[in-house]
């Protein structure tokens, strides 16, 4: 299975339905339904709600799984968040999620991936590949990536 699937737009309808409902507030049900319908944005929002305990009890594992699903559906910032949660758990999948985010244009994911690759976290160390990811982060607008490119090219 690829990490990119079609991205239907159920999220906007779920949000509108929620906004029209009396007392809807932080209700998770419309987001769950939209996420189950493969809406990356709904999965992202639901993941954040679950992690932070909005609209109900906190559920870090459920939130992480929703962010991973959003990443699989092509939302790059969800890949970065899923990677960060995996990294915090010392889960080797962090490198994969940062890679998806970087591939989809998220400069911060490139930066995180560069660090892991350069230092051998979650796999073999490869300073040359790490430099390439720092360059992608820099090209994507991450100032830290540009700093690391200059430091690595100067031998530091």
State the main characteristics.
9 helices, 156 residues, mainly alpha, elongated, 68% helix
Characterization of the model:
With 156 residues, this protein is an all-alpha fold. It has a domain at 1-74. It has nine helices and no strands. The protein has helices spanning 10-20, 29-36, 40-52, 60-72, 76-88, 93-103, 107-119, 127-139, 143-153. α1 packs antiparallel against α2 (29-36) and α4 packs across α5 (76-88). It is elongated and about 55 Å long. Mean pLDDT is 86; it is low at 1-24.
- Class by SSE composition: mainly alpha
Count of individual beta strands:
0
Cα separation of the termini: 40 Å
What is the CA-atom radius of gyration, in angstroms?
Answer: 17 Å
Tell me the series of helices and strands, N- to C-terminal.
HHHHHHHHH
What general outline do the C-alpha atoms trace?
elongated
Q: Helix segment count? A: 9
pLDDT < 50 runs, ≥5 residues: 1-24
- Indicate the proportion of strand residues: under 5%
Helix content bin: 55-70%
What is the averaged pLDDT score?
86
The profile of the biggest β sheet is: none
What does this entry show, briefly?
By secondary structure, the chain is an all-alpha fold.
């Amino acid at each position: 299975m690829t990490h990119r699937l079609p991205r239907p737009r159920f999220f906007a309808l779920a949000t509108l339905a929620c906004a029209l409902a009396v007392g809807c507030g932080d209700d998770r049900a419309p987001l769950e339904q939209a996420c189950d319908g493969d809406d990356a944005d709904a999965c992202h929002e639901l993941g954040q709600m679950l992690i932070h305990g909005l609209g109900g009890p906190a559920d870090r594992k459920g939130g992480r799984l929703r962010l991973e699903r959003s990443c699989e559906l092509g939302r790059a910032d969800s890949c970065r968040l899923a990677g960060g949660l995996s990294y915090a758990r010392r889960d080797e999948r962090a490198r994969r999620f940062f890679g998806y985010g970087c591939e989809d244009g998220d400069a911060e994911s490139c930066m995180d991936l560069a660090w892991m690759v350069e230092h051998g976290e979650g796999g073999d160390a490869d300073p040359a590949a790490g430099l390439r990811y720092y360059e992608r982060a820099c090209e994507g607008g991450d100032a830290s990536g540009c700093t690391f490119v200059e430091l690595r090219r100067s031998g530091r």
